[in-house]
Amino acid sequence: MTTATGSVAAANPFGVRFLLPLALGSCLNPINSTMIATALVPIAAEFHASVAQTGWLIAALYLVCAVAQPTLGRIADLVGARRVYLASLVLVMIAGVGGRVAPSLGWLVVVRMLLGIGTSGAYPSAMRLFRERADATGSPPPRTAMGLLSLMGVATAAVGPVLGGVLTGAFGWHAIFTVNVPLALVTLLLVLAWIPKDPPRKVRRSLWKELDVVGISLFSGALLAVMVFLLDIDHPRWLALPIAAACAALLAWHSLRRPDPFIDLRMLAKHTPLSLTYLRAMVAFTVVYCIFYGFAQWVEGAGGYSPAQAGMATLPLSILAGVGSVAGARTKGLRGPFLLAFACSVVGGIALWCIDAASPLWLMAAAVAVFGIPQGLVSVTTQAAVYIQAPPGQIGTASGLQRTFSYIGAMAATAVIGACYGHKPTDAGLHLLAGTMVGVSALLFIATLFDRTLPRVDDVSKPHS
C-alpha cells in the first residue's frame, strides 16, 4: 500500500489530494480579508461606531497578518509545515466562535486579530509543502499547482464581498465570523487525511530563541504607530511618526546584527530581484485593496444600495479575477502578466471616473470589473516570482514576507481611502481615488517595463536548484 501510494505521488506529486487541503486553507485569509467589506456599515450601526473606528477591523487583521505570515513561515521551516497548518486551523475555529458572541467593537477587533493569526499559517505552510514535494520528486517549479492555490485565494478574495453581503443580509453580520468554523473544520480533516506527516526536524536552539522576538516587536510597533497616525488623519497624532521612525531605525540596527532576523535585510540586499518583487506587490495590492474596500463603501454610502447589492456588484470582478489567475498560471513569463495587470488597472481607474452615484448598478459593476484581471494576474505572478527568486531553504519565510508586503499595501489602502473619502464616500471622493489608482498603476507599468531583474521566459520554466 505504501509503495503504491509513493509511486502515485511520484507520478503525480501535485494531485488533487495534495492540492485541495492546501487550497482550502489558503482561502481563509483572503476571504476573511474582503468578506467584511459589505458588513462594515451594519457593524458600525450596531456599535454606534465611526468610519475611523470600524477601520480598525480592517487594519487590525492586516497588522497581525503582516507579522504572523513571516513568523509562522519561519516556524514552518523549523518545526514542520503540517504542524503549523493544523494549529492555525484550530485558531480560526476559535475566532469564528468568538465573533459570534462579541459584545463590543473592541472585542470584535481582538477577534479579527486572532483570526489574522489563524489564517496566516496556511499560505507559508503550503509553499513549504510545495517546496518539499518538488525537491523530493525532482519536479520543476509547480507553477500550475501554485496557480490553483492562487486561483482559490484570488477567487475567494474577490467573491468575499458577495458572500459577506449575502450572509449579512440573510443572517446578520455575525455570520461572516461563524462561517469560518465549518470551513476550518473541513480543511483540518482533509489535512489530517491527505497531507503526509512532517519529517523529524532537529531545531538547533529552542523555538523561542529561533524566533526574533525583538525584531517582531519593533516591526509591530512601527506598523502600529503608522496606522494610528493614518487612520485618524483628520486629527493627526504627530507623536506616532517619530515613534514609528524610532522603531524602524532600531529594527534595522537589530536586524543587521542578528544571524537570523525577522526582517532579513542582508537577504533582501543580496537578492535584489526578490526585494523588487516585494515592493511591486506592496504597491500593486494597495490599488487592489482600494477597490475592495473603497468601491463597496461608495456603492452603499453614496449609491444607497444594500450590502447584498453592493456585494453582487463585485461579482463580475470575481469572475475576471479567476480568469486572470488561470491566465497567469498558464503563462511562463513574469514581465508580460505584470504589464497586462497594470495596464488593466489604468483602464479600470478611467472607467471609475465615468460613473457616479446616479449610475445604474450594472454600470457600476461593469466599471469595476476590469480590476479583477490585475488582481488575479498580480497574485499568481508574484507568487511564481517569489518561488523562483527566494533562497530554497527560506521559502516559507520568503512566502510569509510576500504576504506581509501585500498586507502593508492593504493597510496603506485604508489610509488612501480615508484621505479620498473624508467623513463619508462621495462621487468626488471616488473620482479622486480613481485618479490616484491611475497614477500609481501607470508608474508600476513603467517601472516593470524597464525592470531588468525579472527573469526571462526560459529561466522561469527551469527547476529551482
From TrEMBL:
Keywords of the record, alphabetical order, are:
Membrane, Transmembrane, Transmembrane helix, Transport
Residue intervals passing through the bilayer: 54-72, 84-101, 107-126, 147-167, 173-195, 207-231, 237-256, 277-296, 336-355, 361-384, 405-424, 430-450
Checking InterPro entries in the record gives: MFS (IPR011701), MFS_dom (IPR020846), MFS_trans_sf (IPR036259)
**Per its UniProt record, what Gene3D superfamilies does this chain match?**
MFS general substrate transporter like domains
Any one GO CC term of this protein is:
plasma membrane
The answer, when asked if Signal is one of the entry's keywords, is: no
Using the record's annotation, list all stretches that form the Major facilitator superfamily (MFS) profile domain. Answer: 18-453
Matching SUPFAM superfamilies: MFS general substrate transporter (SSF103473)
Key word Lipoprotein present in the record?
no
An example of a GO molecular function for this protein is: transmembrane transporter activity
- Topological category with respect to the lipid bilayer: Multi-pass membrane protein
Task: Output this protein's name.
Answer: MFS transporter
Q: Which organism is it from?
A: Luteibacter pinisoli
Q: What lineage does the source organism belong to?
A: Bacteria, Pseudomonadati, Pseudomonadota, Gammaproteobacteria, Lysobacterales
